[in-house]
């Protein structure tokens, strides 16, 4: 008997095959299959995942449309209608402006503003952040308490933010794992705690 996850993945692959047949684009097959697999392992409903993608795009558009923020670096992540802002802004008024703009985006229920008043980070640091994220994710995959698919990991300037809907025990354990990962300067708890 086929599980819901397998049915979803099969549906995504079949839909992709149709798109491939119509467009002749191999990238469509790979991309749609990856989305199907990701959606099947995510703890959010497919509807919530789609809402989060829409909210993220709306938020990025709102921030990019504000000329006063053009010298800032703002990374936007949406999870379960919560927006996480990471990056660098020129002063605290720009940080407040970003919060104001995001709160007015349709669908946003919570804002975690972790923007720092600091110079924009270098490309070298961005690359290092990607590596830190991969190290944290790898630790989650091999841990028995944490389900890697339940936690979104985002790193900016060696500060690692964790998002997901988990129990307090899992959240604390994931934070401890992250804190003990080389090169992590700070852990940001953006979890929603499941009762």
UniProtKB/TrEMBL annotation:
InterPro entries: BON_dom (IPR007055), Lipoprotein_DolP (IPR051686), Transpt-assoc_nodulatn_dom_bac (IPR014004)
UniProt keyword annotations, A-Z: Signal
Annotated transmembrane regions: none
Keyword Signal attributed: yes
Domain (BON) ranges: 51-119, 128-195
Keyword Transport set for record: no
Signal peptide boundaries: 1-28
Pfam name, any one: BON
Cited PANTHER family: BON DOMAIN-CONTAINING PROTEIN, OUTER MEMBRANE LIPOPROTEIN DOLP
Protein name stated in the entry: Osmotically-inducible protein OsmY, contains BON domain
Organism, as annotated: Pseudidiomarina indica
């Amino acid at each position: 008997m086929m599980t819901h996850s397998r049915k979803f993945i099969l549906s995504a692959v079949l839909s992709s095959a149709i798109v491939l047949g119509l467009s002749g684009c191999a990238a469509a097959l790979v991309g749609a299959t990856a989305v199907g697999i990701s959606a099947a392992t995510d703890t959010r409903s497919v509807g919530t995942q789609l809402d989060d993608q829409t909210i993220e795009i709306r938020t990025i558009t709102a921030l990019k449309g504000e000329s006063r923020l053009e010298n800032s670096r703002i990374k936007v992540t949406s999870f379960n209608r919560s927006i996480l802002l990471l990056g660098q802004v020129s002063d605290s008024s720009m940080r407040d402006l970003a919060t104001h703009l995001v709160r007015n985006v349709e669908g946003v229920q919570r804002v975690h503003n972790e923007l720092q008043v600091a110079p924009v980070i270098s490309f070298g640091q961005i690359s290092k952040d990607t590596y830190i994220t991969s190290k944290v994710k790898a630790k989650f995959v091999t841990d028995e308490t944490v389900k890697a698919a339940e936690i979104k990991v985002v790193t900016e300037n060696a500060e690692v933010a964790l998002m997901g809907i988990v129990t307090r025990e899992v959240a604390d354990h994931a934070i401890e794992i992250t804190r003990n990962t080389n090169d992590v300067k700070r852990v940001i708890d953006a979890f929603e705690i499941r009762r």
